[in-house]
Specification:
By secondary structure, the protein is α/β, with parallel strands linked by helices. The chain contains 18 helices and twelve strands. The longest helix is centred in the C-terminal third of the chain and has 51 residues. The radius of gyration is 28 Å and the shape is elongated.
Length: 422
Amino acid sequence: MEQTKILFIPTCNAGVSYWRMWNFANGIHRNGYGATDILWYDKKQVDLAPWEIELQAAYDADSYVPQYKITNEMWQRLRQADAVVFGMVHTQSAIDLIESVLDIRRAGHLRYVPVLMEMDDNILSVPTQNPAYAAYAPGSEIRRITERQMRISDGIIVSTPYLRDVFRDYNENVYVVPNSVDFKMWGKLKNKPKPGIRIGWSGGSAHAEDLATIEEVIPRILDAHKDAKFVFVHGIAPFMFDLEKKYPGRVELHKEWTFIDKYPAKIASLDFDITMAPLIDSAFNRGKSNLRWLEAAALGIPCVASNVGHFAETIENNVDGLLCDSEDDWFKNLSRLITDKRLRQGIGMRARATAEYAFNIDKTSQTYVDSVIACGNSVADRAVIAAQKALEVRESENEHDQSAVADSCLADGGGPAAEPVF
């Protein structure tokens, strides 16, 4: 049976593109679920995709050659694909490009190739304190472009059920494929116990408000448990620098960024005994996936998380993770894990088993292909219905034309009723 070939076109930073495109492309190819092609992926990308920036610059300058170079490369790859998945685009030239793909398909030159969109955040509810708020605020240019892409795409693939429910207002074909772990990569990594109990967090720069929910908990833990140490990676909140000074040697800050291909090894090398995933309860965070729990689970490390969104939906409390509703919950749950090695090992082991069963890239890659095929079938069905309606319209017009000709003959005296009667 011929395999479905999916073309992925990333638009976001390397982390998002890895989890939502490269990871699935690799899983699909490795397991023989389909064929994949990923265009313009850069594992060191920290912002928008260069192709979007270059295309918009050429568009603004009315420069034909750069536009042709980018669009021609895409068309060459697209002609060989059965489906194309774009990341969320950010420029007028990029949304125009997607519109042109749909126009050419309607003209009959791309068969029934579905055009899908990847979404991993609830950009409709970005908090005002988030650095990305200005870009996605109601009425902004990027917000208009994103909403347009959601509406014109044949389908949207998202990471959580909450996002599916939110985006159904824009598109009836929304498919959930959860973020998943490549255990062939993560499974090879081992953390080596270090002195004390290392409690870790990693994340981006937009989590200051989330981290503030445990700001008062951290000194309580450090005062109550002299063997505890906190380790923070990447998105360092301002209050952590004060804690680093107040508790020398017990608050470890890793401010440098790690490229996504080195990230799993980086996390494993930090030798966490416990991980944390604090989130405030907001519409934006309810759309967040359980990725921090997944990363810990892949390494067999227990995770303490806020009882919010996807964490609440996927973690079985006191079985494969611990959920918190208050500062006291955070203090209690962290204290339990600090003082009970068997509890740490048990929750970590069960978390890994859950992740291997439900969030394993070797399984969910098939779900991704099935979602793309379902969207393609929807496109084909709509095309058939449209063709049938067009045929009915033409037949109706033909009948009307024939009737008009007959009436004209009657009016001119050329019909039977105009014959003389003797």
